[in-house]
Design a protein that fits this description.
By secondary structure, the chain is α/β, with parallel strands linked by helices. It has helices spanning 2-5, 19-29, 42-50, 61-68, 129-142; strands at 11-13, 33-35, 55-57, 73-77, 96-98.
Length: 148
Amino acid sequence: MIAYLQKDHTIYLLGGGDELKQIEVWDKAYDNVIDISKNFNLRKQINIINYMDLMISMDSANGHLAANCEVPVLTVWGMTHPFCGFAPFDQGIENSIMIDRNYYPHIPTSIYGNKIPKGYENAFRSIEPKEVIEKALEILKLTKPHHN
Protein backbone atom coordinates (compact mmCIF):
# COMPACT_ATOMS: atom_id res chain seq x y z
CA MET A 1 0.00 0.00 0.00
CA ILE A 2 2.77 2.39 0.92
CA ALA A 3 4.72 1.62 -2.26
CA TYR A 4 1.68 2.44 -4.39
CA LEU A 5 0.33 5.46 -2.52
CA GLN A 6 3.71 7.16 -2.17
CA LYS A 7 3.98 7.50 -5.94
CA ASP A 8 1.51 10.41 -5.91
CA HIS A 9 1.25 11.32 -2.22
CA THR A 10 3.54 12.09 0.68
CA ILE A 11 3.16 9.41 3.34
CA TYR A 12 3.85 10.31 6.96
CA LEU A 13 4.44 7.32 9.23
CA LEU A 14 3.68 7.36 12.93
CA GLY A 15 4.22 4.53 15.36
CA GLY A 16 6.13 3.23 18.30
CA GLY A 17 7.69 0.18 19.89
CA ASP A 18 8.28 -2.75 17.56
CA GLU A 19 6.81 -0.77 14.64
CA LEU A 20 9.75 1.62 14.55
CA LYS A 21 12.07 -0.85 12.79
CA GLN A 22 9.60 -1.36 9.93
CA ILE A 23 8.88 2.37 9.73
CA GLU A 24 12.61 3.01 9.33
CA VAL A 25 12.79 0.50 6.47
CA TRP A 26 9.91 2.20 4.61
CA ASP A 27 11.35 5.65 5.33
CA LYS A 28 14.63 4.66 3.67
CA ALA A 29 13.04 2.68 0.82
CA TYR A 30 10.70 5.32 -0.61
CA ASP A 31 11.22 8.94 -1.61
CA ASN A 32 7.80 10.20 -0.50
CA VAL A 33 7.71 8.43 2.87
CA ILE A 34 8.66 10.32 6.01
CA ASP A 35 9.05 8.87 9.49
CA ILE A 36 7.75 11.57 11.80
CA SER A 37 7.89 9.30 14.87
CA LYS A 38 11.65 9.58 15.27
CA ASN A 39 12.01 13.27 14.52
CA PHE A 40 9.08 14.93 16.27
CA ASN A 41 7.59 14.88 19.73
CA LEU A 42 3.86 14.25 20.22
CA ARG A 43 2.91 17.93 20.07
CA LYS A 44 4.66 18.37 16.71
CA GLN A 45 3.20 15.10 15.41
CA ILE A 46 -0.31 16.34 16.20
CA ASN A 47 0.48 19.57 14.37
CA ILE A 48 1.55 17.56 11.31
CA ILE A 49 -1.60 15.38 11.55
CA ASN A 50 -3.66 18.57 11.45
CA TYR A 51 -2.38 19.23 7.91
CA MET A 52 -2.97 15.73 6.51
CA ASP A 53 -5.61 15.04 3.89
CA LEU A 54 -6.20 11.48 5.17
CA MET A 55 -5.13 9.25 8.06
CA ILE A 56 -5.04 5.49 7.52
CA SER A 57 -5.08 3.86 10.91
CA MET A 58 -6.05 0.85 12.90
CA ASP A 59 -8.01 1.58 16.04
CA SER A 60 -5.17 3.60 17.46
CA ALA A 61 -4.58 6.95 19.08
CA ASN A 62 -3.37 8.37 15.75
CA GLY A 63 -6.75 7.79 14.13
CA HIS A 64 -8.51 9.43 17.06
CA LEU A 65 -6.14 12.41 17.01
CA ALA A 66 -6.70 12.86 13.27
CA ALA A 67 -10.49 12.70 13.67
CA ASN A 68 -10.29 15.38 16.35
CA CYS A 69 -8.33 17.51 13.86
CA GLU A 70 -11.20 16.99 11.36
CA VAL A 71 -8.98 14.88 9.12
CA PRO A 72 -10.78 11.98 7.37
CA VAL A 73 -9.74 8.65 8.87
CA LEU A 74 -9.74 5.30 7.07
CA THR A 75 -9.65 2.58 9.71
CA VAL A 76 -8.59 -1.01 9.11
CA TRP A 77 -9.97 -3.51 11.63
CA GLY A 78 -8.55 -6.89 12.59
CA MET A 79 -9.91 -8.89 15.51
CA THR A 80 -12.03 -5.94 16.64
CA HIS A 81 -14.92 -4.16 14.97
CA PRO A 82 -16.04 -0.50 14.84
CA PHE A 83 -19.37 -1.44 16.44
CA CYS A 84 -17.47 -2.11 19.69
CA GLY A 85 -17.42 1.66 20.11
CA PHE A 86 -13.80 2.47 19.37
CA ALA A 87 -14.16 4.04 15.93
CA PRO A 88 -12.68 7.53 15.56
CA PHE A 89 -15.15 10.34 16.28
CA ASP A 90 -17.49 11.41 13.48
CA GLN A 91 -16.14 8.91 10.93
CA GLY A 92 -18.76 7.02 8.95
CA ILE A 93 -18.80 3.25 8.80
CA GLU A 94 -17.98 3.58 5.09
CA ASN A 95 -14.50 4.67 6.20
CA SER A 96 -13.94 1.33 7.94
CA ILE A 97 -12.47 -1.76 6.31
CA MET A 98 -13.14 -4.91 8.25
CA ILE A 99 -12.42 -8.61 8.02
CA ASP A 100 -15.36 -10.41 6.42
CA ARG A 101 -17.49 -11.79 9.26
CA ASN A 102 -19.02 -14.37 6.87
CA TYR A 103 -15.64 -16.11 6.87
CA TYR A 104 -14.65 -15.14 10.42
CA PRO A 105 -17.94 -15.04 12.36
CA HIS A 106 -16.34 -14.72 15.82
CA ILE A 107 -15.10 -11.19 15.11
CA PRO A 108 -14.88 -9.25 17.31
CA THR A 109 -12.92 -11.90 19.16
CA SER A 110 -12.59 -9.66 22.21
CA ILE A 111 -13.20 -6.02 23.00
CA TYR A 112 -9.49 -5.24 22.55
CA GLY A 113 -8.84 -7.67 19.70
CA ASN A 114 -6.13 -9.42 21.69
CA LYS A 115 -7.69 -12.91 21.44
CA ILE A 116 -7.05 -14.83 18.23
CA PRO A 117 -9.14 -18.01 17.96
CA LYS A 118 -7.76 -21.09 16.27
CA GLY A 119 -8.06 -20.63 12.51
CA TYR A 120 -8.02 -16.83 12.74
CA GLU A 121 -4.23 -16.41 12.72
CA ASN A 122 -4.24 -15.14 9.11
CA ALA A 123 -7.67 -13.47 9.13
CA PHE A 124 -6.17 -10.00 8.78
CA ARG A 125 -4.53 -11.10 5.53
CA SER A 126 -8.02 -11.50 4.06
CA ILE A 127 -8.12 -7.71 3.70
CA GLU A 128 -6.57 -7.02 0.32
CA PRO A 129 -4.13 -4.09 0.10
CA LYS A 130 -5.94 -3.09 -3.12
CA GLU A 131 -9.15 -2.54 -1.11
CA VAL A 132 -7.37 -0.15 1.26
CA ILE A 133 -5.68 1.70 -1.61
CA GLU A 134 -8.94 2.10 -3.54
CA LYS A 135 -10.81 3.36 -0.47
CA ALA A 136 -7.99 5.78 0.39
CA LEU A 137 -8.02 7.20 -3.14
CA GLU A 138 -11.82 7.49 -3.04
CA ILE A 139 -11.70 9.45 0.22
CA LEU A 140 -8.94 11.69 -1.13
CA LYS A 141 -11.04 12.49 -4.22
CA LEU A 142 -14.05 13.40 -2.08
CA THR A 143 -12.04 15.50 0.30
CA LYS A 144 -10.77 18.93 -0.54
CA PRO A 145 -7.18 19.37 0.57
CA HIS A 146 -7.30 19.97 4.30
CA HIS A 147 -4.99 22.97 4.10
CA ASN A 148 -3.24 24.83 1.30
